[in-house]
What we know:
Elements: H1 2-11, H2 14-21, H3 37-43, H4 48-55, H5 72-79, H6 82-89, H7 107-113, H8 117-124, H9 142-149, H10 152-159, H11 176-183, H12 186-193, H13 210-216, H14 220-227
Helix pairs in contact: 1-2, 1-3, 3-5, 5-7, 6-8, 7-9, 9-11, 10-12, 11-13
Amino acid sequence: xxxxxxxxxxxxxxxxxRQLLQNEQININWQNQNETPFYIACxxxxxxxxxxxxxxxxxxDINKADNDGETPFWIACSAGQIExxRxxxxxxxxxxxNKPDNDGETPFYIACQEGQIExxxxxxxxxxxxxxxxxxxxxxxxxxxxxxNGHIExxxxxxxxxxxDVNKASNSGETPFWIACxxGHIExxxxxxxxxxxDINKGNEKNQTxxxxxxxxxxxxxxxxxxxxxxxDINKAD
Length: 238
C-alpha cells in the first residue's frame, strides 16, 4: 500500500493518493530509495496538487530528508520549484527553512549556488527567519559562493541586504572578495570595491591577499583595477 501511495505521488495521481490516505494504518512517510511520497512530489515532478493534498495531512513529515540530508524544501530550492517553495514557506512554520544537508549547505545556500535568483528573492522577502550567513562545512557562506560562482545579479541582491556578512571568510580564510579575485570575476570585483564594508586586503590562512591572488593567477584586468585603488596594499607578503 505504501509503495502504491509513493507511485501515485510520483505520477501526480491526486484521486488515487486521496483514497490511499484515507487508510489510517498507512505509513505516509515510507521511503522508496530514501525518498518519501512528499519528497518525490516536491522534487522531481513538482506535482503541486499532490503537495497540497499531503500538506493537509498531519501525518506527513515535511522535513524528512534523503540519505544526503536533502529535505523536500532544500531540493525544491535547488531545482527552482518556486511554487512548491512558496507553499512550504507559507505552511504555518512547519517547514524547517534552514535545515542543511550533510555538507552543511542550507536551502538558501543551495539556491544561491545554483543561481536560482527568483528563489533567492522569495527567501529574502519571505518574512521567515532565513539564516543568510550560515556557512557549509567548509565555512563558505551563500555570499561567498555567489561571488565565487560569478552569479552577479545575486551578488547585487545580497549586497543590498544589511543582514548579509560580506566579509565572512571560509575555514581556510578566503573572503568573498578573495574568491572573486581568484576566479577572475571582474564585474563582481568592481561591485565589491565600491562597497565600503568590504575588506579588500584580508588574506587567507597563508596570508595571501586578494591582490597577491590576482597576480598569481594572471588576472591582469583585476590587477589593474587593484593597482588603481589606493586602499590596496600591493606589497603585503604571504
